Amino acid sequence: MNKMFLSILLLCSIFASSCATKGQTGAGAGAIGGALVGQAIGHNTEATLIGAAVGGALGYMVGNEMDKYDREQLNHAYERGTSGQTTSWRNPDSGNSYEVRPQPAYSDPATRRPCRQAEIIAVIDGKTERTYSTACRDDNGHWQLQNQ
């Protein structure tokens, strides 16, 4: 990995870990995921930066729009969703809709907590957004989105 990619990843991690709002948390996670995807696809700094920018914007939009109902539904998808199968819902208040496709659970090597990755497709104000997230169980057994 080149130094620029590692610098971007570090900056994104710092940004994500210091976030206060849902939108900022989503932007941080999205930027990190986008940077990783950009680097994997393009294998250069430009692709990494584009991936980080796109991922950050998508993550912000999805994170900012999820309310309590949506977070409960997302938690349910992580908890009971069948790996590789889509769980979907439409928020009765906002009209936004979501599809979540969780992957098999695994144990995080650092914390030994159960974690799952998922693809999230959100339709917010008629615009479709796709993001990827990881959630791990907290001490109370709830799934918490991770700042990767």
Keywords:
single chain; 148 residues; alpha+beta; six-stranded antiparallel sheet; globular; disordered N terminus
| Structural class determined from secondary elements | alpha+beta
Portion in helices: 40-55%
What is the gyration radius calculated from CA atoms? 15 Å
Largest sheet: 6 strands, antiparallel
Low-confidence stretches: 1-22
Task: Quote the distance from N terminus to C terminus.
Answer: 17 Å
Q: What is the number of E strands?
A: 6
Count of helical stretches: 4
Mean pLDDT: 74
Listing every helix as H and every strand as E from the N terminus to the C terminus, the arrangement reads: HHHHEEEEEE
Structure, explained:
The chain has 148 residues and is of the alpha+beta class. It has two domains: 3-64, no CATH class; 67-145, no CATH class. It is 47% helix and 25% strand. It is built from four helices and six strands, in the order H-H-H-H-E-E-E-E-E-E. Strands 1, 2, 3, 4, 5 and 6 form a six-stranded antiparallel beta sheet that branches. A hairpin with a 6-residue loop joins strand 1 (87-90) and strand 2. It is globular. The two termini are 17 Å apart. The model is unreliable at 1-22 (pLDDT under 50).
